[in-house]
Write a structure and sequence with these properties.
The protein has 237 residues and is an alpha/beta fold. It has 11 helices and 5 strands, in the order E-H-H-E-H-E-H-H-H-H-H-E-H-E-H-H. Helix 4 packs antiparallel against helix 5 and helix 4 runs antiparallel to helix 7. The two termini are 23 Å apart.
Length: 237
């Protein structure tokens, strides 16, 4: 089983799921270092995993990495889980420029004021409003602070150059879980509903009172959804 973290995240984002599901299987939670493309991240992950078929789950940017693994070695992906993520490339025109400017503004804060100052600004919109200022919020800041501005810049570059994965959706024939928070403002339910409509047999779980950081905000519900996904029958015709 491969659990792929998102932008600037580490094993903490999957800690509850590893604790609950790791006794029965080998779980790999990679880091991406200073890699600056999603394809390079996918290829790095494939050097870390044992031979054979994989259960691949990706959160946020990790879902994008999961698509790149699927693009490269579809025969090795036995099941796929996409959490709080999306498939679309950088939008053209003003929308794309706004995204680019917003990400680069956060990078400027990280370089000038430090990673925690950037994280405090960024994380405001990542969690459900009820969790702002809580120990969980501080744990998210701790996680981002463990990364560096150089790593942040590389991962921003990877996301701004993200490939369009729309065409992959109709090719997926393995058990697929789609999951997001109801209040996820970064990857809202509508994007997961689109993926469900284009992936044969995909199951969608939307968690209430949950923002973008679903694995940390609603760990028991995410673990239960993953356990059900792992128990589903295999490849579909």
């Amino acid at each position: 089983m491969v659990l792929l973290p998102g932008l600037m995240c580490d094993g903490a984002v999957w800690a509850d799921q590893v604790a609950a599901l790791g006794a029965a299987r080998t779980i790999v939670v990679p880091t991406y270092g200073e890699l600056d493309s999603l394809g390079a991240m996918a290829e790095h992950v494939l050097t870390l995993v044992p031979p054979g078929r994989l259960a691949v789950a990706g959160h946020s940017m990790g879902g994008r990495v999961a698509f790149e693994i699927l693009r490269r070695v579809p025969e090795r992906v036995a099941r796929l889980a996409l959490l709080d993520t999306s498939y679309h490339p950088l939008p053209e025109g003003d929308a794309g420029e706004r995204e680019r400017a917003g990400r680069l503004a956060l990078l400027a804060i990280a370089r000038e004021q430090g990673m925690r100052a950037m994280a405090r600004e960024w994380a405001q919109g990542m969690l459900h409003p009820s969790r702002l200022g809580t120990p969980l919020f501080e744990a998210v800041l701790d996680m981002f602070e463990r990364r560096t501005p150089v790593q942040f810049a590389a991962q921003i570059e990877a996301l701004l150059a993200r490939p369009d994965a729309t065409a992959l959706l109709g090719q997926i024939r393995v058990p697929t879980l789609l999951l997001c928070g109801r209040e996820d403002g970064w990857s809202p339910p509508a994007r997961h509903e689109f993926m469900q409509a284009h992936i044969a047999g995909a199951r969608l779980v939307v968690l209430e009172r949950c923002g973008h950081m679903s694995t940390m905000e609603q760990p028991a519900a995410v673990t239960a959804a993953l356990a059900r996904w792992l128990a589903e029958p295999g490849i579909r015709p």
